Structure formats: C-alpha cells, structure tokens
Design the sequence.
C-alpha cells in the first residue's frame, strides 16, 4: 500500500492529506468548488450528491482550524518548532521506508498473489491506529461516525486506489512508481476543470507541462532499458497499472473533497469511517482473489517485514496529524517534495543505473517541475 499500503502524490499546489501516506497513498487536493455546491440536477459522477441527511451550509476547514488552535497556549496539540521538525523527519523516514519495505515484500512471488490481503492488513492497521488516537486518553481528534450506505462508494474507491498502487509498485521499478505518482497533480487539476469548472493559476499550469513531459519520457524509455537489473520489472503493463492508479486515485481525491464539504469532516474523521469498511469489503474478496502463501514455508523475515510495514503505516498516520496541526500548507508541501526526491534518488541508486540512462532526463524534468 501501502502509502500499499497504506500509505490515505505530492504537489506544489496543494496540501497533504493524512490518508495518502498511511497506505502508500497520497490523497490530494480537497479544496471546495468555487461558488459552492451545485444542486442535484447538475451533479456528476465525480461530484456525488449524498442524500443522507440535510446538506450543510458551509464547509469548515477543520484541519486549518487545528493549525490555528495549535498556536494557542494550553492547546492539547500545541507543537513547538523542534517537535514539529521531529514529526516531519519521522514522517519522511517512515514514508520512504514503507515504499522500499513493500517493494521487498512484493518481490516474493507468493506475496505478489496476495494483493487484496495485504491491502486489507493495512486498512485494518489504519483503522486501529485512528481508533486509538481518537480515544479520550489521547483525543487527538474527535470521531464523527457516519452511516454505512453513504460511505460505501468512497470506501470502494479507496480500496481500488490502494490495490492499484500496490500493483503499480509490484510491477514497476521504485523510481518509475514514484515518478508516475507526480501525475496526480495535473490529473486532479484536469478533473476539477472539466467537472467543477475550477481553474488553477496560469503559472501553476505552466509547471504541469514539464511535469507531464518528464513522466512521458520515463514511460517511453523505461520499458526499453536493458542494461540495469530492474529493467525487466518495468514494462508496458507497469505503465498501464501506474496510469490506472493515478486515474483512480485522482477520482478518489475529488470524492474526498465532496464528502468533506457535505459532512464538514477533516481527513482523519473521514478516514476513521472509511478504513474499517474498506477492510471488511476486501476481506470478503480474499478467498476469490488471492493465493495466500503457506505459513510453514514462508521465511520469518517476510512476516517481520509485513509487521514492520504495518508499524510504518501507523507512524505515518500519527506523524501526519502533528504536521497538519502544526504546519501550514507550504511546510506540508516541502515535506512532500523531500519524500518524492528521496524515494526517486534512492530507487535510482539501488537500481545502479548510469547517469547516462535515457530516462534520466525525464526524471530530472519531472522532479524539477514539482520543486519550481
């Protein structure tokens, strides 16, 4: 997941969302549509009308409120600069580690056929983590329970998002996997423009062009590479899975924004409702979709890595709360850039590619566009 994981895309024009990293997921922009919600007659598939209870009049950005309250004396989530730096560092290390850990797990052929089970494990780890963080003796956020029926579409999208991100990581090199995720930003921007008539600043739009060009160059040359160990792991199937993952993740992001506007929830409250539902949904599918590895013949170190991956997911969820509460959008974006650059650089080094590799220009172009 992973951010598989769990783990619920980093972008220079949007804040981070807590759900993304926990499943190796990065839900993106959740800004509301300019001019407010449309009526039900003009609703589209991406702007879902949820008929569970009366509509709310205003969308309260609870995460921004948490950031404002964090600076007030006596607030329970008050974060000093040193403490915030600690949580940012922990979040970065955990996010980078979970990508490489999940990749190592999926390199085992037996676990490649257990994608749904692995996603289920991460969703339940996320649900348990959020449950503990919401208890009165910790009380980092207040749960906002929702009925099952309106949550089913969003939980389904979350499950597909997690599974396809894991598949993309399984059948791609780490460098290509992470670079492809950069496309979340232009894809979400395109969906917002087509279905919400919401545009972005012209200068921001210009940065999307080299970003898309860089990913295209990598997608073209990566499957053709034959002189490095990971060449066989990146194929046209890898490109298809990566692009499908980006599309599903972008739609999921838009739906998150719709639910947040409707129910006035922050990311943790929404994920608190989604994760257990998604975990149960996937658990039902395991007998028909997965071929689980034998416990007797699977090395102990594989199970240790799986538990380690779950622990990283919990750390990502915990640290993300303090980052959202103690830092603004700019700081969160910087953390996202650092994680992307670190994963791409380490993935390139581990693959032992030469600097003259033809896809290197695409990597540099894509990375430069998110930093600008």
Sequence:
């Amino acid at each position: 997941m992973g951010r598989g994981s769990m783990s619920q895309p980093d972008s220079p024009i949007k804040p981070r969302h807590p759900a993304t990293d926990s499943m190796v997921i990065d839900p993106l922009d959740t800004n509301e549509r300019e001019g407010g919600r449309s009526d039900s007659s003009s609703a589209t598939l991406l702007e879902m009308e949820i008929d569970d209870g009366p509509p709310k009049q205003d969308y309260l950005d609870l995460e921004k409120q948490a950031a404002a309250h964090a600076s007030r004396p006596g607030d329970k989530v008050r974060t000093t600069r040193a403490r915030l730096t600690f949580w940012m560092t922990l979040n970065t290390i955990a996010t980078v580690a979970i990508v490489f850990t999940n990749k190592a797990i999926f390199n085992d052929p037996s676990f490649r056929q257990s994608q749904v089970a692995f996603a289920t494990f991460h969703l339940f780890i996320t649900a348990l983590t959020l449950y503990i963080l919401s208890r009165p003796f910790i009380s980092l956020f207040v749960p906002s329970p929702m009925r099952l029926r309106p949550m089913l579409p969003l939980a389904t999208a979350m499950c597909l998002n997690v599974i396809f991100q894991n598949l993309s990581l399984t059948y791609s090199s780490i460098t290509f996997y992470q670079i492809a995720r950069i496309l979340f930003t232009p894809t979400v921007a395109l969906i917002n423009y087509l279905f919400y008539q919401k545009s972005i600043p012209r200068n921001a739009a210009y940065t999307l062009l080299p970003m898309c060009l860089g990913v295209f160059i990598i997608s073209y040359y990566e499957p053709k590479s034959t002189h490095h160990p990971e060449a066989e792991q990146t194929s046209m199937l890898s490109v298809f899975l990566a692009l499908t993952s980006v599309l599903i993740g972008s739609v999921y992001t838009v739906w998150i924004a719709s639910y947040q506007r409707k129910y006035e929830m922050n990311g943790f409250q929404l994920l608190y409702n989604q994760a257990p539902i998604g975990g149960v949904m996937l658990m039902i599918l395991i007998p028909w979709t997965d071929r689980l590895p034998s416990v007797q013949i699977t090395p102990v170190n594989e199970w240790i890595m799986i538990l380690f991956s779950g622990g990283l997911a919990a750390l990502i969820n915990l640290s993300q709360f303090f980052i959202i509460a103690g830092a603004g959008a700019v700081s969160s974006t910087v953390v996202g850039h650092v994680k992307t650059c670190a994963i791409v650089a380490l993935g390139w080094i581990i693959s032992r590619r030469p600097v003259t590799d033809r896809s290197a220009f695409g990597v540099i172009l894509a990375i430069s566009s998110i930093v600008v």
The chain has 14 helices and no strands.
